[in-house]
Amino acid sequence: MKVVRTLVAAGGENAIDLLSKHVPELSKGRLKDAMSKGAVLLSGKPQKRLRRAQTALQAGQQLQLHYDDDLLQRQCADALLLSDQQQYSVWFKPAGMLSQGNEWGDHLSLMRFAEQHFAAKRQVFLLHRLDREASGLVLLAHTKTAAAALSKLITEHKISKQYHIRVKGQLSDSLLQQGDIALPLDGKPCLTRFNLLQYDAQLQQSWLSIALVTGRKHQIRRHFEAAGHPVMGDPQYGKGNKDAAGLALQAVSLTFTCPLQRKAVSFNLPPSLQLFSGLA
Fold this sequence. Notes:
The protein has helices at about 15-20, 30-35, 70-75, 110-115, 145-155, 175-180, 220-225, and strands at about 1-10, 15, 40, 50, 55, 60-70, 80-85, 90-95, 125, 135-140, 160-170, 180, 190-200, 205-210, 250-260, 265-270. By secondary structure, the protein is α+β, with helices and mostly antiparallel strands. The strands form 3 sheets. Strands 7, 8, 9, 10, 11, 12, 13, 14, 15 and 16 form a 10-stranded mixed beta sheet that branches. The chain has a 4-stranded antiparallel beta sheet with strand order 1-6-3-4. Strand 7 and strand 8 form a beta hairpin. The N and C termini lie far apart (about 50 Å).
């Protein structure tokens, strides 16, 4: 069941009563669950998620409900905190988890997971995204100063990100020698560099190490589909590359000069979490 409603408070009522009155097809229990999972937005500057059912509303305030039974019942593995640098942290985002929520909720998002993780409440700023189907390293900031400094590094392409992917087929010698794909995406220049890690002749699939020089939406997935070697398990791009194991794309390392500590740092995904085993 999907329900989308915009409600205006008359004043002198609380959030759950307003929702219950105008969305009778959903019980108070289901509405409270939706609120706790971030599916109710309260108007304002900025707009925010309203989680507390008994919040008193002022006249003219608006609530937006985006209820989807299927989405609210979904679950995924927990994220893992790999490195806590106080002003920022590095996480392992599992496949199936969003980087951040949307109007339909945020209970399956890394940002919400991080907000709830720390005993002493911290701000959480998302600095870059990783596709829901992908897994791997994501950098979060916890102060405005850190967010601004690290975002500047990303904008200036000063954070080196390495990925591992498994693609359909065997890449030609000429493509391997070329070592990059420079196909523009969305009218903008793009560059993806890669090298071969391993070719599995039995499966006719190749493991590649990827370095993104630019960061367009779904750049790796779109580039390798265009090259005729779609990423295995990709639900959106490619043909003949379905895989029950899921999307074979993983962010495995982040390297940069920390603008806060002013030293070179490198964060690597532990071997136990890596999709590519490195076994010939």
